[in-house]
Design a protein that fits this description.
By secondary structure, the protein is of the alpha/beta class. The chain contains 18 helices and 14 strands. The radius of gyration is 25 Å and the shape is globular. The mean pLDDT is about 90. The structure holds pyridoxal-5'-phosphate (PLP).
Amino acid sequence: MVVKSIKPVLANGVEVTPRPALWADVPDEQWNDWRWQMSHRLNTLDELSQLIRLTDEEKEGLQAQGLFRIDITPYFASLIDPDDPTCPVRRQVIPLGREARAFEAVMADSLAEDAHSPVPGLVHRYPDRVLMLVTTECASYCRYCTRSRLVGDNSANFSSSDHEEQIEYLANTPQVRDVLLSGGDPLTMAPRRLYNLLKALRSIPHIEVVRIGSRVPVFLPQRIDDELCAMLAEFHPLWLNIHVNHPKEITPELSRALDRLSRAGIPLGNQAVLLRGVNDSPEVQLELVHKLVKNRVRPYYLYQCDLVQGAGHFRTPVSVGIEIMEALRGHTSGFAVPTYVIDAPGGGGKIPVAPNYVLSQSPGKVVLRNYEGFITTYYEPTDYDRSERSQLWLEGRALGRDEGLQKGVADLHSGKRLTIKPEGFDALHQRGRAGGITKRGRRNRLDSYDELNPNR
Ligand SMILES: *Cc1c(COP(=O)(O)O)cnc(C)c1O
């Protein structure tokens, strides 16, 4: 079934999303006030059944005990098709009974964020940037939330002293040049608290870039007023990633909020999650990225759905994501193509996944295919010498490149290491007592080519 976009109506000459009968009598002034929207969020079977013809499984979900928190702003609820249980907006925020049923691969903290947390709320997984969880509150709650283990729980919210500890860690960790504020949703914080936090971050000289991840523009566009934009603009360079999954979410209200943010000089990106029944088709993804770039939002990541409790029914095979990437790359503007990533279970960080374009290689030649299936050969130079600076970098001797940093495959390129081994690998393979078939074989055990040829 093709999802119809909502036809805007005119109110005082401005395009707005038509308001359901339930809220017809609410004065515009209240409807457009983010505080009214926050305090009138829907979360019970009774409230939602006044708006939507709920299915039995939705009723089951709304009555189940112990599910992830439910809250939907009236504005976002007004985008729901009351008669279509497959409505992509509806599926993102109304729970189903099956949320309570676990699936085989489910993990408690699937990204191992807790293990990478030096102080409460900080996740320092990458060398030069950190994820800073500043609140557990959101404007509405996504049913597939990757952080449902902490998000939505008021009693687990971060305190001012947590924030102070986070700031102190950052001030004492000079390799961090990029701080990503997330949660929960930083833009649900009291304006003064957010201001103080940004100010404290900006007082740390080595922090070059501050980023905010927020779904407030989507759930609560009323919050993106001139005052907030002016406040954010005090802390440039400040980047913002929003979270839109389906073109139906891009309303005149969201467009105006994005325009305000853009005009405040904030570069905008979008992080979408690949969700079964919501956006798992190339057609929907193409329409989504086109609508995003029309609003000056660059599609940044498309996430494979994480292995979290309650999200099993949203998962797709990875091949569905690869098909989508195949349909985007080359077929539309390069800047409209997000990077499809799997956030590694167990905590490896984001791993990009894409169709293969390198088909084959021989000395001096690379065989490639394009998005149409056209196959070509690129002839490589035969006289290439690595520049001195590039050599220094590879050897880990470049200026400012800390020996202790995570280098990964670069050490294989430089010849510094020959292999990267899983834990316990050597012990497992130390089966022969002599360590080789011949005594010489034992000596030939190598850890890098440099040992083989020290003069290289
Ligand atoms: C996603 C993420 C970041 C930011 O990653 P980018 O690829 O730079 O956007 C940083 N830290 C953690 C823990 C993350 O999950």
